[in-house]
């Protein structure tokens, strides 16, 4: 039989109200009491009835991931981390895709909120800086946390120093001997597009390598856009010896396009990406990339959101570290 809150209270030797306060992470509960209640919850495998909690606490116990990011790998990693935080705090997670364009975005987000009434939302780029979405949330007093916002002032959530990470990655390529390094950018509205492009420019400047606008191509963070951008670069009279794509999906597209043209990676061309989503390890050759702890960022952003939901004004912007991963997709350039 399913355990009830009365069973947990009896096992812990406390009142049902105390159990409720512990499960809702309310303050002013002694640590010894909190530990006793959580041990009883674990032993009895108690799972709160979210419908009953919602009626009693005037909350839905639902948080939403609001997105329009085309990278499925990135989205699934964020979702995984958010689910971990939601499960640990007895919340449900729902996904809220929204379209592009002011009217479509407004219609999508309004319809979603009227149906689900979430207690709060996590935004991922580029919606972290979308004025239509931000205005709606602020006008309706909906708590939200942001992942990698361009404007982090007065925001809560999580971010990483992406420009510094790309500078390190580029310095690794330059140390291998590459001088003609191309860059495939992400969507213009995406903060990562600006930060990663800035790291690319900084590295060239620091190494005394002249910037060549023909080596910078616009992408959309999708696999197909990586293929298209790579083909533009391969058609140059002097193609690059290395390509840094602003995410792993586009870098995987570069490797596919190179294979179709008989260009061997890394013998003829070095390729690197950003994020270290599963595709970076699943393709061959395995991708040199920057590990952004994407799932952990989803988890941390959700925890900051839950802090804000429970206590207005609480929560902060958490900064996480990156890791540089040189794998089989990069090597010194072939002598020409």
Provide an overview of this structure:
By secondary structure, the chain is an alpha/beta fold. The chain has 3 domains: 44 residues, 434 Repressor (Amino-terminal Domain); 129 residues, Response regulator (Rossmann fold, 3-Layer(aba) Sandwich), CATH 3.40.50; 131 residues, Response regulator (Rossmann fold), CATH 3.40.50. Helices cover 47% and strands 15% of the residues. It is built from 13 helices and 12 strands. A 6-stranded parallel sheet has the order 2-1-3-4-5-11, sandwiched between helices. A 4-stranded parallel sheet has the order 7-6-8-9, with helices on both faces. Helix 1 crosses helix 2, helix 1 crosses helix 3 and helix 8 runs parallel beside helix 9. The longest helix has 17 residues. The chain is elongated, with a radius of gyration of 23 Å. The termini are far apart.
Task: List the keywords.
single chain, 336 residues, 434 Repressor (Amino-terminal Domain), Rossmann fold, 3 domains, four-stranded parallel β-sheet, elongated
What's the short story on this structure?
This protein is α/β, with parallel strands linked by helices and 336 residues long.
CATH class of the largest domain: Alpha Beta
- N to C succession of SSEs: HHHHEHEHEHEEHEHEHEHEHEHEE
State the helical fraction.
Answer: 40-55%
Low-confidence stretches: none
Shape: elongated
Based on CA atoms alone, the radius of gyration comes out at: 23 Å
What's the CATH H-level superfamily name of the largest domain? Response regulator
Overall domain count = 3
Label the CATH architecture of the largest domain. Answer: 3-Layer(aba) Sandwich
CATH topology of the largest domain: Rossmann fold
Number of helices: 13
Broad structural category: alpha/beta
Number of strands: 12
């Amino acid at each position: 039989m399913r355990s009830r809150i009365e069973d947990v209270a009896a096992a812990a030797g406390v009142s049902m109200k105390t159990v409720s306060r512990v499960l809702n992470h309310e303050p002013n509960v002694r640590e010894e009491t909190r530990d006793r209640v959580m041990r009883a919850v674990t032993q009895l495998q108690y799972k709160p009835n979210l419908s009953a909690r919602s009626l009693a606490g005037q909350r839905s116990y639902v948080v939403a991931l609001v997105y329009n990011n085309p990278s499925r790998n990135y989205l699934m990693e964020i979702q995984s981390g958010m689910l971990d935080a939601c499960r640990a705090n007895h919340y449900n997670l729902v996904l809220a895709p929204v379209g592009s364009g002011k009217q479509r975005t407004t219609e999508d987000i309004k319809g979603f909120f009227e149906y689900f009434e979430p207690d709060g939302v996590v935004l991922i780029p580029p919606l972290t800086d979308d004025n239509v979405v931000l205005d709606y949330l602020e006008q309706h007093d909906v708590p939200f946390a942001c992942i990698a916002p361009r404007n982090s002032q007065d925001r809560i959530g999580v971010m990483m120093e992406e420009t510094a990470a790309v500078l390190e990655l580029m310095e690794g390529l330059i140390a291998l001997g590459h001088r003609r390094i191309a860059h495939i950018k992400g969507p213009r509205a995406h903060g990562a597009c600006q930060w990663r492009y800035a790291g690319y420019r900084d590295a060239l400047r620091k190494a005394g390598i002249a910037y060549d606008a023909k080596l910078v191509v616009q992408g959309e963070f999708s696999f197909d856009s990586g293929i298209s951008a790579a083909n533009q670069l391969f058609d140059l009279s002097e193609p690059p010896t290395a390509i840094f794509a602003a995410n792993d999906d586009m870098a995987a597209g570069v490797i596919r396009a190179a294979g179709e043209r008989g260009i061997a990676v890394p013998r003829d061309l070095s390729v690197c990406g950003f994020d270290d989503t599963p595709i970076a390890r699943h393709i061959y050759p395995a991708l040199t990339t920057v590990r952004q702890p994407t799932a952990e960022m989803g988890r941390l952003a959700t925890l900051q959101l839950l802090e804000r939901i429970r206590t207005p004004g609480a929560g902060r912007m958490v900064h996480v570290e990156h890791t540089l991963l040189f794998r089989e997709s990069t090597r010194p350039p072939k002598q020409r």
